[in-house]
Amino acid sequence: MSTNTEIDADARDRLLDLAAEFYDQFAGGEVPSMQIPTRTKSNIEYDDDKDVWVYGDRHSTRSANTVTGAKKLLKAIYVIDFLAQQLDEDRSSTLRELYYLSESWDHETAQFSSQDESNQLIEDLEIVSDVTREDFHMRPEESGATLMGPLHLREQTRRGERDIHCQEDVGEGGYQIPNNPDTIEFLDNDADFILCVETGGMRDRLVENGFDEEHNTIIVHLKGQPARATRRITRRLHDELDLPVVVFTDGDPWSYRIFASVAYGSIKSAHLSEYLATPNARFIGIQPTDIVEYDLPTDPLSDSDVNALENELEDPRFQSEYWVEQIERQLDINKKAEQQALASRGLDFVTETYLPTRLGEMDVL
After folding, report:
1. What distance in Å separates the CA atoms of residue 261 and residue 276, rounded to the nearest whole number?
2. Which fold does the domain 146-361 belong to in CATH?
3. CATH number for the domain formed by residue range(s) 4-139
4. Which residue numbers are catalytic?
5. Pfam families recorded for this chain (predicted)?
6. What average pLDDT does the segment 118-138 reach?
7. Is the pLDDT of residue 1 over 50?
8. Is 198 annotated as a binding residue?
9. Which of 12, 53, 344, 364 has the greatest number of beta carbons closer than 10 A?
10. pLDDT for res 22
């Protein structure tokens, strides 16, 4: 296993190789440029060997033959210089800090006009260098996602190693997932499966009802659209501990996309699908059939909900027979429901009836 020092040195070398490539192009009389995969729904395809969604063959070119292109490459050089220095000093920064830090750069043209612009450039550098932003020592703002369950792990921190049991050594809030889960070593576990939960309210209900203890499950709080660290630790738990993964969300198109980002990868980070996505994850969220069967409290679909569902029917991640059937059923009943709607049948219904029934049908329980 590579040490942190070796990983940092490799990340720094790859970044500097990119800068050197721009210089070599310029010295050779070529217009400096770099190619980036087109990050659109039409340019993702399923990789049968890796069981994940990845970018296809379409690319866009960042070239200095236009003023706009030249500015983008200039900004890339400034960011590479900053990241290389950051790695040299074994320091880290947040994506937000990078945006503000550019205000101090000596060349005004290299400064970012928005955080979206700086975020996209970091993603570009990930793709062309084949190094993750975590290995650049770049952090998002805190996601606050947690896990709770029968898992004993060892975490590497700046103050040294610490061993933690994710039930016995944590409070009701659980163990907070670090920005880079690859610093974690799994020591031991008594888990039978992983349950990824969209909302904090439902996560708290499951913990209060002792679902993690009764069913030996690791409950991962996704906290809405899951951060990369959350998806990464889920993938590692699945692969390294050989645990099935199920994803429990609300019953609406936006929640289906939360599931898709866990299972299939997101369009935005398709270059990291093999690293972040868990292709064997299964959906256990509120289905249109559940809305009807349990007569759940609902809201009508909004125009944006309908549009999102119709788009999902064209999304390559939702082309299975199951998803087409569920989406068409939801459009037909014109309703959506939250996880907490299960409380209409009692606070214990979700842990005593709904989840055990669904998990039993999946042969997880």
Report:
1. 9
2. Dna Topoisomerase Vi A Subunit; Chain: A, domain 2 (3.40.1360)
3. 1.10.10.10
4. 100
5. TOP6A-Spo11_Toprim, Topo_VI_alpha, TP6A_N
6. 87
7. no
8. yes
9. 53
10. 84
